[in-house]
Amino acid sequence: MLEAVSGEIPFGVEDDEEIVALILGGKLPPRPEAASNTVWDLICSLCAANYRARPTIDDIISTLTSLVETGASSSAHAA
User: Fold this and answer.
1) Of 28, 38, 35, nearest in space to 70 by CA
2) Which SUPFAM superfamilies match (predicted)?
3) Is 47 a domain residue?
4) Domain span at residue 25?
5) Is residue 69 over pLDDT 80?
6) For the chain, counts of helices (H) and of strands (E)
7) Average pLDDT of the chain?
């Protein structure tokens, strides 16, 4: 999802295992300027190290549907 929003691969790294290790180590890539607050919150929740803290597929679908309906998937965030 991060790559879809930013157009860049996470951390500038192509190795999925390395990306997973970074995320499980508590690191997140920088927030893309194009990511709305809702999109960034979803990305962060998807990257939670504890799988129980991650959203369910129903939660993800609901959030994405809402983003599409409101057109808020990629608006600039407040600094």
Assistant:
1) 38
2) Protein kinase-like (PK-like)
3) yes
4) 2-70
5) yes
6) 4, 0
7) 87
